[in-house]
Amino acid sequence: MPELPEVEALAHHLREHATGRTVVRVDVASLTVLKTVSPSWTALHGRTVTGAARHGKFLDLDCDGLHLVTHLSRAGWLRWADSLAAPPPRPGKGPLALRVHLGPPGEGPGFDLTEAGTQKRLAVYIVEDPATGVPGIARLGPDALAITRDEFAELLKGRSERLKTLLVEQSTLAGVGNAYSDEILHTARLSPYATSGKLKDDAVDELYAAMRQVLTDAVERSVGQAAARLKGEKRSGLRVHGRAGMPCPVCSDTVREVSFATKSFQYCPTCQTGGKPLSDRRMDRLLK
Fold it and tell me: What keywords were assigned to this record (predicted)?
């Protein structure tokens, strides 16, 4: 899933390459991707792109006051092209959900919004005000790269959630997902199962510093990369997430995994849990 660094990099790419161009045509290949009815996507035609921004993990293309807002969810992506095919795409064929032409079709640049797999969760909103027109943005907590240390400490007070749960809850803290929460907790040397509200001051300092470091480093690696390279750039920078069974780059212990119905997280026992593996109910059942 694209998280704060990748969405920030996509917003930067659009600011660099789309700003000042005119939306010539929007092709909708999957009507289910549109989560708003009015204004219609045709209202974007003829508007000039005036900017691009990020709200948590939402990508916002400002078209002279009318916003094309996208949440890429788990398997969505933005694919930029210097030239897009002129014929409108056939609905329901392949991963393409929506195409934006920023020049004459067949000649000018633009981008596709695509989604792999069968779980169609890619969401597109066309609104005048993202803060009020997109429910997910209205519910966002403070941005993970904008919150101060004192605000972060206040946010943790009295919370009973596990750290892993709190870090990925967008209404609490915006921008962090499954992958970077694993990286943040590993860098901070904290257990994913630690109780948020019971952290001592030095642990809060470590967690906040780790969050800033992991996300800032990822943004710096990602911004300026071509959109097609961002997924590979993300994977190359991960130390524990997606590396179950491999040696921890810090201590060489084996990176472990805890799995749930639809997702999993990875951690290092030596670095994060005092050498004790966390219970994985899926594996516990297999070993009985």
Answer: DNA damage, DNA repair, DNA-binding, Glycosidase, Hydrolase, Lyase, Metal-binding, Multifunctional enzyme, Zinc, Zinc-finger
Specify whether the CB–CB gap between 278 and 193 falls below 8 A. yes
Map out the domains of the chain with their CATH numbers: 4-138 (3.20.190.10), 149-279 (1.10.8.50)
Structure tokens at 99: 């195409």
SS (H, E, C) 107-127: CCCEEEEEECCCCCCCEEEEE
- Residue pair 191/267 in contact (Cβ under 8 Å)? The answer is yes
Q: Is 7 exposed, middle or buried (0-12, 13-18, 19+ CB in 10 A)?
A: buried
Among the listed residues 55, 59, 54, 80, the one whose alpha carbon sits nearest the alpha carbon of residue 69: 59
How far is Cα of residue 52 from the mean position of the Cα atoms in its chain? 16
pLDDT tens track for 148-183: 999 999 999 999 999 999 999 999 999 999 999 999
What single letter denotes the amino acid at residue 7? V
The share of the chain scoring above pLDDT 90, in percent, equals 85
Return d(Cα 73, Cα 29) in angstroms, integer: 18
Instruction: State both tokens at 143.
Output: 């941005």
pLDDT, one tens digit per residue, over 234-271 is 888 999 999 999 999 999 999 999 998 778 999 999 99
Residue corresponding to tokens 């480093």: 217
Joined together, the tokens standing for residue 66 give: 């009318």
